[in-house]
Structures are given as structure tokens and as C-alpha cells.
UniProtKB/TrEMBL annotation:
Organism: Labeo rohita
Keywords: Calcium, Membrane, Repeat
Domain Cadherin stretches: 1-45, 46-156, 157-261
Gene3D superfamilies listed in its UniProt record: Cadherins (2.60.40.60)
Localization, UniProt: Membrane
Protein's name according to its UniProt entry: Cadherin-18
Length: 331
């Protein structure tokens, strides 16, 4: 019996007494019979070749095409698993959605590959060993995917740039350069611009053709050690296509700040020291200094009394392991 040909039957049964002789009585009933399904039908594609057009800008993972195999069975006997058989499908996935196979993709690039040819298999997931003699419970088809060309914005050679320049460098000093190219086959020339903000002062400019970044004013590391700018690239033939890249400029230190003595406190000392308590010198103040420059240019200080001013013989300055102390001579 074949459920796919006929699933329901109604059978009328009659019973007679007296062995069915004339004059006997009879009764009848109807028996409704429903055939349950077995997996005795393989999946079949309606056609062997499919074609689909996909623009190269298609979002990764988004379905771009559907193919469907039919199975005359029902329930779990009709469940189908889809898969790609040939290596050209590497990076391309086919997933099951209801009874349809949906092709999802890796990033497409028209300039690198314009067409894909995928051999796709549809196979039952629940096989019944009683019917293996009927053959393989799977079918295959070919899906040809044509990639459409899309005008794409310029692509920078790096995801971000880090550059360096010394503070107090002359206006117009080259800091570095960014590069971008048109990924399309026409290779349109690229132009560069720095994204401006009204609330920020302009310290840099960029050459529109070469992408070279230069200073527009003197930089002060002690004021701003890092500058963050955004460079924009557009195609000359289509300025509406834009790409952006962050650029970080580190301002390097030069020794342009004098050390500052960090105390101007008035020092009060006693007129004399009692006998027996005096040492060759008595420390009256420890003197330290700070420097706004970087540690490499601000470490190591030497202290002395200013030249041209008569020195008081009662006081000296002495090194105290990196810091200096003011001492009073004892008598």
C-alpha cells in the first residue's frame, strides 16, 4: 500500500446470521483506515540547475538565495539536510529553514571572484533501513551565483594610524601619511580631507592628493601630548562615497621647560644652638624641584646659589641622594 497515492480508506463490513441463508438478519459497520507514513521516498529537487544574482555589497550572513527539495513523505520522514559538496563553497553556508535551503555568504568581492558554482545536496535526516534497497535517499542540484559589481568607497591601507612629531616643530612639518585606494576595477583617484569640528582648534592639515599630514601651528606636549583626528577619503569620480580612519598623533618631548623649585616658604631658624647639640652643619630645609618636561628630559637636577649675588657664608647647599638640603654652619 502506498500512502502517497492514497492515505485514507473506508471499508464497509456486513455480518449475517443463519450462515447467510434467506430469512437471516444482518448488520453492517464502516471501518475508516488511515495509513501511517514510512520514509520510502527520497527528496527531489524540482530542477537540476538554479541561478541567483547577488550584489557584492550583500550583508554577510544574510540569505541571498533559496532552493527547495520536495519529499512526498511527511513529518520527520520529510526532514531534509542541505550541504555544499564542492570546495568552491568554502566560507559559504547553506542552512535549513523550514523545508528550504538558504545560502548565506562570506564577504563578496566582484573584483576577486565574479561567479560561484555550488553543488548542493539534499538528504533525509531520518533513514529507514527497511527501504535502503530503493537507493540513496538524497538528491543534488547546481546553484550558480553571479556576483554583481557595486561602486564601493575607498579602502585605507590600515584600520588606524599612529604618528609621532616633536613639540615645537616648525609649522608645516610632515607628521606622516595615510593611503587609500578605490577597490573597484576602475581604480578612481582618491582625495583626502581632515574632518573638522567647530569646537576643536586646528593643528594639522592634509594634502588632498598625497595624503601627507602636516602641522599648521606649534605643538606643546605639556599642553596636549596626544591629538586624535579623523581622515576622510573620497573618490574623485564619486565624492558621495566616503571612508573614515582614525589617526592618533603623539607629541614627543623636547627639553623646553626650566625646573621649578616647588617651595617658596619662609625659613625660620633659631639664633644659636646649645653647646653639645651642634653638629658640623644643621639641616634647615630640604629643597626639591619639578620639571614639566618628560622624565627623560626632566630627571636629575643640580642646585646652586645664583651667580652675581654675594653668598652668605653661614649657609651651604648639599646633595642629599638626589635632593638637596640647605644647611647652616655651626660655630
Amino acid at each position: 500500500m502506498d500512502r502517497e497515492a492514497r492515505e485514507h480508506y473506508s471499508v464497509v463490513i456486513q455480518a449475517k446470521d443463519m450462515a447467510g441463508q434467506v430469512g437471516g438478519l444482518s448488520g453492517s459497520t464502516t471501518v475508516n483506515i488511515t495509513l501511517t507514513d514510512v520514509n520510502d521516498n527520497p527528496p527531489k529537487f524540482p530542477q537540476k540547475n538554479y541561478q541567483v544574482f547577488v550584489p557584492e555589497s550583500a550583508q554577510v550572513g544574510k540569505p541571498v538565495g533559496k532552493i527547495k527539495a520536495n519529499d512526498e513523505d511527511i513529518g520527520i520522514n520529510a526532514e531534509i539536510k542541505y550541504s555544499i559538496l564542492n570546495p568552491e563553497g568554502a566560507g559559504i553556508s547553506v542552512r535549513r529553514d523550514a523545508a528550504e535551503g538558504r545560502a548565506g555568504f562570506m564577504p563578496l568581492n566582484y573584483e576577486k571572484k565574479k561567479q560561484y558554482s555550488l553543488h548542493i545536496s539534499a538528504e533525509n535526516t531520518h533513514l529507514d533501513p527497511r527501504f535502503t534497497y530503493l537507493g540513496s535517499f538524497k538528491d543534488d542540484a547546481t546553484l550558480k551565483i553571479t556576483v554583481g559589481d557595486v561602486d564601493e568607497p575607498p579602502v585605507f591601507s590600515m584600520d588606524y594610524y599612529i604618528m609621532e612629531v616633536y613639540e615645537n616643530a616648525k609649522v608645516g612639518t610632515e607628521v606622516g601619511a595615510v593611503t587609500a585606494r578605490d577597490p573597484d576595477s576602475k581604480n578612481s583617484p582618491v582625495r583626502y580631507f581632515i574632518e573638522r569640528r567647530e569646537d576643536k582648534e586646528v593643528y594639522f592639515d592634509i594634502e588632498s592628493i598625497s595624503g601627507v599630514i602636516r602641522t599648521t601651528q606649534l605643538l606643546d606636549r605639556e599642553d596636549t601630548p596626544w591629538h586624535n583626528i579623523t581622515v576622510m577619503a573620497t573618490e574623485e569620480d564619486n565624492p558621495s562615497l566616503q571612508s573614515h580612519v582614525p589617526v592618533t598623533v603623539q607629541v614627543l618631548d623636547v627639553n623646553d621647560n626650566p625646573p621649578m623649585i616647588n617651595t617658596e616658604d619662609e625659613i625660620i631658624i633659631c639664633e644659636s644652638t646649645r653647646a653639645g647639640q651642634a653638629s658640623p652643619t644643621t639641616v634647615i630645609q630640604t629643597i626639591t624641584a619639578v620639571d614639566k618636561d618628560d622624565f627623560a628630559n626632566g630627571k636629575g637636577f643640580s642646585f646652586s646659589f645664583p651667580g652675581g649675588i654675594p653668598a652668605n657664608p653661614n649657609f651651604t647647599i648639599k646633595d642629599n641622594e638626589g635632593t638637596y638640603v640647605g644647611c647652616k654652619k655651626s660655630y
